[in-house]
Amino acid sequence: MTQAASTFEYYRRNFGKDAMASIVVFLVALPLCMGISIASGVPPTAGLITGIVGGVVVGLLAGSPLQVSGPAAGLTVLVWQIVQQFGLPMLGVIVLLAGLMQIAAGLLKLGQWFRAVSPAVIHGMLAGIGVLILASQFHVMLDGKPIGAGFDNLAGIPGALSHALYDGGTPLQTLLIGALTIAVIALWASFAPRKLKMLPAPLVAIVVAVGVAALLQLKIKYIPDLLKNPEDINNIWSVIQYPTLEGLKRVFDSGVLIAAASVAFIASAETLLCATAVDQMHQGPRTKYDKELTAQGAGNAICGLLGVLPLTGVIVRSSANVDAGGQTRSSAILHGVWLLVFVVVLPFTLAYIPVASLAGLLVFTGYKLAYPKVVPKLLLYGKTEAAIYFSTIIVIVSTDLLKGVLFGLFLSLLKLLYVFSHLEIRWDEDFLNNRLNLHLTGSATLIRLPLLAAELERVRQGSEVHIHFEHLDYIDHACLDLLTNWETQHESTGGSLTLEWEELSWKYHQRRTGARKAAA
Predict the structure, then answer these.
(1) What DSSP string runs through 141-200?
(2) Which residue segments constitute the domains of the chain, with CATH numbers given?
(3) pLDDT digits (tens, 9 = 90+) for 265-298
């Protein structure tokens, strides 16, 4: 059997499982695409087009077959800032440029380098985004608008909540719809009937909110109210904005280049982090990172040409795909097809969805991102990792996303420089047995070689020296060469040198075991 025939047979054999999984992913993606659009400051139907591109285009080209791509909560804050700074017409140009950067990075085999970003920074970035989403969408859930920057939105929550509770009216109605949405999502997995648990909680929550709003005839905002022309709800393609010649002339402006590079970097880092997580969920083919990066770039280039949201690999939809039994890339592709069929055949149903329910969905999403569940794992690698995590969050919330990520990377670099330049040497002398114990802590590298050499020069001639490595993180060739040469010199005076390599080997084994347990 030829390779092509074998591949066809593989996909045919798994098509049933993929089709069922694709329906689950579609049901998860539908409300998320619209909610993320609202949080990004663009028409809610723009996210559906991005979801279609992420499913069909990226699904066909992906290097991570079971990863699902679409609009991501991790980019909402950045996109919102871009729309506020440059205007909605420039969003497409910036996303197009970001996609081309991703394609270039994939072709240059830079996919693995994006994985080199410290996990503390990545998790801090996601948590910071979660705080910003929760703070901004809480106001939308109360029939208002985000106040401004992150801390402003956080500080304004008590006042907005008090206004809704005591003054009543529309804000109280939207609060109840949003709270109902959050409650259904939070409780669905625990209390839903076993036969219905396969239904995604976000979709069930939106359906319940639609039913309650219709039953009570609530006069609140619905999706058409966010469109310039409410009739456009029946034609989602009306939100497409092709790049203009005037916009394309600005591609070399420093602000536009920085914005595009920010989208490309954050989208790539989030995608490849998600791909790594998906690889741990199944036993199928592993991710080809450069191919995945190129596929993401192609998808974002198309989204840029259409003037809609950028896309990334997204963990919620990807994990739903794996949990639902997806076996090949067909499930991701089909979920994009179902989105396309939905917006062509049933677009009128979107008119019944309350904006507050989508905002509630995002408030819950922000909470899940912001919850510091990763801190215990980071502490296994030292308190500095947790410090970098929280510092990244604080800077993101107090300034903006790019500054927070860059600050986190700066702290990671400082930690790396400290680790590779910090060496402590402690003496423990046994005069009775003429024995000297030398304890090394930190990293014995070329940078600290003069210090090690100076300490060795203090050793008495003819003494028995034991060097202990139980607290040593790393030793390089230069320091090993120094110890070897010094051993020859010291033995010529009647002394001896014992290197406790067993301690270093045991410590390394214990750390690997601890890391595997943390990953599990």
Answers:
(1) TTT----SSHHHHHHHHHHHHHHHHHH-SHHHHHHHHHHHHHHHHHHHHHHS-GGGTTS-
(2) 14-415 (no CATH), 423-519 (3.30.750.24)
(3) 889 988 887 888 788 778 888 889 999 999 999 9
